[in-house]
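Thread: "does anyone have the structure for this chain?"

Original post by V.I.:
We have the sequence but no experimental structure in hand. Need at least a predicted one for the grant figures.
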Amino acid sequence: MTTELVLLLGLFAFLVGPIFFGEKGPIQVFGRSGPRLAARIEKHITVGREYKMKGGQYNLWQAPDTNPPDGKL
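Reply from O.Q.:
Generated one for you, tokens below.
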């Protein structure tokens, strides 16, 4: 019984291992796509800062009209 279990586990590891650690596995895919993802995030940060609204005005951050909360109830 132990021999069959060891053989089945070895066969499972032999077949499933390349799925995770192979050329098209998630570790390699995320390693190669990291620079592309960083470039997209950087682009979204720069574009989102001065995103034009319908009226041609920019959607920029403005200070709120009220005082910030002081933590008292």
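V.I.: this helps a lot. The chain has a mean pLDDT of 77.
O.Q.: and The chain has two helices and no strands.
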